[in-house]
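Hi support team,

I've been running sequence recovery on a batch of backbones for a student project. Most finish fine, but this one hangs at about 90% for roughly twenty minutes before it completes. I'm not sure whether the input is malformed or the queue is just slow. I've pasted the structure tokens below so you can try to reproduce it. Let me know if you need the job ID as well.

Thanks,
M.K.
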């Protein structure tokens, strides 16, 4: 027994170096023939390309390291190389070689004479593994894009556009079918157009826009069209801006009025330790600004259908107490304390008068709104909205359809109002405009209906 055990251990000792050599050899083969493919990441990944784009390619191979990185763009013809990089083999098992690589490259479709249509961006990476007959592991990353360098077309259909400062306008136009966004651009403000008859296939659009009361008379107006590749066409059209002078109104605030106003707002909107003037200024400035922002946000919904019909109703037997864009200068103890612009028309009749929906639409807001108190906002479709402020009660709910003349509430003094009245506001895509135009059947006929009936004739043909 003892002898045979001795024989066995002698055999192990003799074979051990061979075993170790075999293990090392296997490890060596596994290392140089490693099968891990290089990793690649490309940013950005646009679906369309219209102009020069700078891409970033990030590649890595943590085992044998990177041998070669190639980036090309391919259409029907031969591939065009945008980036080619070969890396040297350095150190034992390329330990000192390049394992991560991060590089930017630019693709300019016009410079490369790419044709309109599909183009594939191809990234090929080889590593230093001995696999595939010594070529190494290969990773191919392919990104498909559409080359589109032709901007969309846009042409006005309507001819006369006479716009009052602080007023509204309507333009009708035709675009090429690749257009995905269009409208009127004024000083960075884009008023979106809506497809005529709810059908974008005709390429005919109409766009209600506002000329904000505080824009300079010589502010340029453009028609704008964009396609999915982000090509943009900006085109001028015929228009005439009519200068308007807005009134200035002095408002004297007594200590008693100050108390009444402040007490009608919840005390937790003020900072502790604020004086009455500070509280008043918070309401008149900060709260006013916040409320305008809420209104602007509300009046962005895209109801593509025209819900309204004919001129808007003006509250019956009501006197105009304040006009649109009146500049109000506020005085306290004969000292000017604030200046604000009135963004609607104040109408007063008997206290607690019925308030009617000025036109057909859908209620999109029916609750308290800071300085405007109990407020209703109606969406009339295609970017036109009306608001009704300072109500003592509201008779409608959000999402409720209303017909012109429907009772929606009762006038009151809620919010920042000293006497019972209705604050009536008109907004075009969230921008306040002078409601007077929309009450005027002649203005609507000349500026709106004439243009809409012209579209009907085009469609009939
Ligand atoms: Zn008002």
């Amino acid at each position: 027994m003892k002898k045979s055990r001795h024989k066995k251990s002698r055999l192990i000792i003799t074979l051990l170096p061979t075993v170790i050599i075999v293990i090392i050899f296997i490890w060596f083969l596994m290392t140089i023939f490693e099968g891990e493919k290089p990793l690649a990441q490309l940013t950005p990944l646009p679906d369309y390309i219209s102009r020069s784009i700078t891409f970033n390619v990030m590649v890595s191979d943590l085992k044998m390291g990177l041998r070669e990185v190639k980036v090309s763009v391919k259409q029907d013809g031969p591939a065009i190389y945008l980036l080619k990089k070969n890396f040297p083999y350095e150190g034992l098992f390329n330990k000192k070689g390049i394992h991560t690589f991060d590089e930017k490259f630019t693709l300019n479709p016009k410079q490369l004479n790419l044709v309109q249509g599909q183009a594939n961006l191809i990234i090929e990476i080889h590593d230093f593994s001995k696999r595939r007959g010594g070529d190494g592991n290969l990773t191919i990353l392919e990104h498909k894009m559409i080359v589109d360098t032709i901007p969309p077309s846009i042409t006005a259909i309507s001819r006369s556009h006479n716009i009052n400062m602080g007023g509204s306008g309507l333009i009708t136009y035709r675009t090429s079918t690749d257009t995905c966004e269009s409208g009127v651009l004024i000083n960075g403000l884009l008023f979106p157009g809506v497809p005529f008859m709810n059908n974008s296939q005709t390429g005919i659009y109409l766009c209600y826009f506002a000329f904000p009361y505080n824009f300079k008379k010589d502010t340029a107006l453009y028609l704008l069209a964009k396609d999915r590749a982000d090509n943009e066409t900006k085109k001028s059209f015929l228009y005439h801006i009519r200068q308007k002078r807005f009134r200035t109104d002095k408002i004297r605030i007594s200590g008693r009025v100050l108390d009444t106003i402040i007490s009608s707002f919840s005390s937790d909107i003020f900072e502790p330790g604020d004086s009455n003037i500070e509280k008043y200024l918070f309401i008149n400035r900060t709260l006013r600004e916040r409320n305008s922002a809420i209104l602007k946000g509300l009046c962005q919904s895209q109801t593509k259908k025209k819900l309204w019909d004919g001129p808007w109703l003006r509250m019956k037997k009501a006197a105009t107490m304040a006009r649109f864009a009146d500049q109000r200068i506020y005085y306290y103890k004969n000292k000017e304390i604030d200046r604000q612009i009135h963004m609607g028309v104040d109408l007063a009749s008997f206290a607690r008068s019925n308030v009617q929906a000025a036109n057909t639409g859908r209620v999109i807001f029916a609750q308290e709104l800071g300085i405007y108190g109990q407020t209703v906002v109606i969406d009339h479709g295609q970017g036109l909205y009306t608001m009704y402020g300072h109500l003592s009660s509201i008779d409608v709910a959000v999402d409720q359809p209303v017909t012109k003349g429907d009772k929606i509430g009762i006038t009151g003094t809620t919010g920042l109002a000293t006497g019972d009245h209705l604050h009536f506001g008109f907004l075009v895509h969230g921008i306040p405009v002078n409601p007077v135009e929309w009450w005027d059947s002649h203005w609507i006929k000349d500026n709106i209906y004439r243009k809409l009936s012209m579209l009907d004739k085009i469609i009939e043909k």
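--
Follow-up from support: It reproduced on our side and the slowdown came from queue contention, not your input. The pocket of zinc ion is lined by residues 322, 342, 344, 346, 423 (CB under 6 Å). No action needed from you.
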